[in-house]
Amino acid sequence: MTEKTADFQPFKRSWQFWLNRRLPPQKERTLGQRSIFIFPSRFGLAYLFVCLFLYILGTNYQNNLILLMSFTLIGFFITSILFSYANLSGLTIKSSQTNPVYVHDTAQIPLYLSNCLDRNTLTFSFGKHTETTLNLASERDKVLVPFKAEKRGMVNPGRVTLKSYFPLGLFRCWTHLDLDIEVLVYPQPVESYVPLLHLDDVSDTPRANAEEMDDFVGIRDHIPGESLSRISWKHVARNQQKLVSKEFADSEFDPSWISLHQIQGNDLESKLSRLAFAVNYYSQQNALFGLELNKTTIAPGVGNEHRLSCLKALALW
């Protein structure tokens, strides 16, 4: 942190404290006097300088025409304040659930607007992230505001900035709203081979062999994720056909697992990224698998809901 940045830290803390008291987190907010701020823009300051220059020039030369022009321009300046405020006043902004994304991906955060008929040139952004502009709002509108996720977990993108330079660009009318938004960010998948393990490999708990406990009843198609010990290699070699498994009475085939312990290395984020890739890969293969993260365990399953549950566990780990 540079000295210049450090000098601004007390000011930033005071500013955030004041904002949190004046505009606390709220899912829905209607803009009014407490939440709208108006300051001259750079163009507005230059405009004021020209008005002042014309006034001094007209006074010095006692030229009524120049004085009239300066007074007229100042009248436009003052009137613009009212139009700027009216463009945001009464506008209701509501946050909604955001779809999960991966780290380094851009989330499109939906904001719903109401009481927004004929609102002009509204610009939305989260901090220094990309801005999105709504040129002319209808009675009810939806805006997708981009936010690039830089870390995993349940991330709050911070305050959304809404600003407008309507009507003449003389004023910057704006607000900073904390709409209590949360974005679930998954670890960025990193391609890596993560083999499926079985329960005894994950927990070091001995398990009985199903073939020793149950009666053999026949052959069926092999299901991805089953133990290789169940494959009937004789039938595969004899008929040169696809994999088939032995089926036993009253037995449930042994599901497979992926575990944090099987990933080598000390970088937790890298290990979680490799597991995220494995979750997506085995879900595409329709394999039955579970996820083991020390004290957090996701029971074996298949399908997209199971995949999302595993990714959420990785994100919140």
Write up what this structure looks like.
This protein is of the alpha+beta class and 317 residues long. It has 2 domains: 168 residues, no CATH class; 118 residues, no CATH class. Helix content is 35%, strand content 28%. It contains 8 helices and 17 strands. A 5-stranded antiparallel β-sheet has the order 2-11-10-6-7. A 4-stranded antiparallel β-sheet has the order 1-3-5-8, with no helix packed on it. Strand 16 and strand 17 form a beta hairpin. The longest helix has 25 residues. The chain is elongated. About 3% of the residues have low confidence.
Record the SSE blueprint.
Blueprint: H1 3-22, E1 28-30, E2 37-40, H2 42-61, H3 64-88, E3 92-95, E4 101-102, E5 106-114, E6 120-126, E7 132-136, E8 140-148, E9 153-155, E10 160-164, E11 171-177, E12 183-186, H4 199-203, H5 210-213, E13 216-221, H6 233-239, E14 244-248, E15 256-259, H7 268-284, E16 289-293, E17 296-301, H8 304-316
Parallel strand pairs: 4-12, 15-16
Antiparallel strand pairs: 1-3, 2-11, 3-5, 5-8, 6-7, 6-10, 9-12, 10-11, 13-14, 16-17
Helix pairs in contact: 2-3, 7-8
Counted up, domains total: 2
In total, the number of strands is 17
Strand content: 25-35%
Portion in helices: 25-40%
Helical stretch count? Answer: 8
Rg calculated over all Cα atoms: 31 Å
**How many angstroms separate the termini?**
29 Å
Strand order of the largest sheet: 2-11-10-6-7
**Secondary structural class:** alpha+beta
Largest sheet, in brief, is: 5 strands, antiparallel
Secondary-structure element string: HEEHHEEEEEEEEEEHHEHEEHEEH
Q: pLDDT below 50 for ≥5 consecutive residues: which ranges?
A: 204-214
